Amino acid sequence: MRADQYFMVTYVLMFLLIVKTVLVNATLDQVPEERMKRFERWFAVGFVATTLVVYLILTLMAPS
User: What is the 8-class DSSP label of residue 30?
Assistant: First the structure.
């Protein structure tokens, strides 16, 4: 049961990475490069923090 939760979280996080990549590629010509770099930097910080917190919660959560 716990493995299913890890897999589901992993799929959601992978989906977010794919959406970010598509979004960046679609708006690359319309938005200045400096702004896109800033967006990618903030996304990376938020993504890593979210990933760590979610996996920490799953790991420390009482067995279901």
Answer: T
